[in-house]
Amino acid sequence: MNFYKIWLRNISVFFLICSSFVSFAVVAQVDTFQFDKAENQERFRNLSNELRCPMCQNTSLSGSSGGVAEDLRREIYLMIKDGQTDRDIKDFMFERYGDFIFYKPRLTVGTIFLWVGPAFFLLIGGCVGFSVFRNAQSLTLKNKTLTDSDQNKIESLLTREEQNLKIKGKTS
Q: Angle at which helices 67-81 and 86-97 pack, to 10 degrees?
């Protein structure tokens, strides 16, 4: 009975420790910025969702609790308060962090491969697949036509096999 109590206590401590780690992971910092117009609040949310946190790499500014994300959210807030447009804010972020800051990179000479590359490789793969299919189809069509000598060989083999089967049938 003592073994059971010790085991139960150890399991309880283990789950308590695990749950404390989970609770720390769930906590996130929420910035509260006050805007005079609901339109500006919506712009702030949209920009925070469209821009990537440079420190977290695959999290939007609104989903990150990192210090860099907090600073950038504050910067966006101040720029909106100053009356700058979304385009001005995005240009500012681009100058500071490059294309990485955008989840959807701009179409430029440097990013053209990101946008056209998948379609290009799909097209190349389709062409290769089509040519392999055509070559395989032409090979099977060529092999379907038999020459007279091939036909004679097949008939002689069939005749010989029929004779072997008749002989085996008589001996059994």
A: 140
Separation between Cα atoms, residue 80 and residue 44, nearest integer Å? 8
Q: Where are the domains of the chain?
A: 2-101, 112-171
Task: Give residue-wise pLDDT tens across range 1-34.
Answer: 577 777 777 777 777 776 666 554 444 445 578 8
Q: Is residue 27 exposed (0-12), middle (13-18) or buried (19+ Cβ within 10 Å)?
A: exposed
Measured in degrees and rounded to the nearest 5, phi and psi for residue 103 equal: -70, -35
Q: Phi and psi (nearest 5°) for 27?
A: -65, 130
- Report the CATH fold assignment for 2-101: Helicase, Ruva Protein; domain 3 (1.10.8)
- Tell me: the pLDDT tens digits for 111-155? 788 788 899 999 999 999 999 988 887 776 666 667 788 889 989
Burial label for 108, CB within 10 Å (0-12, 13-18, 19+), is exposed
Residue 89 near residue 76, CB atoms below 8 Å: yes
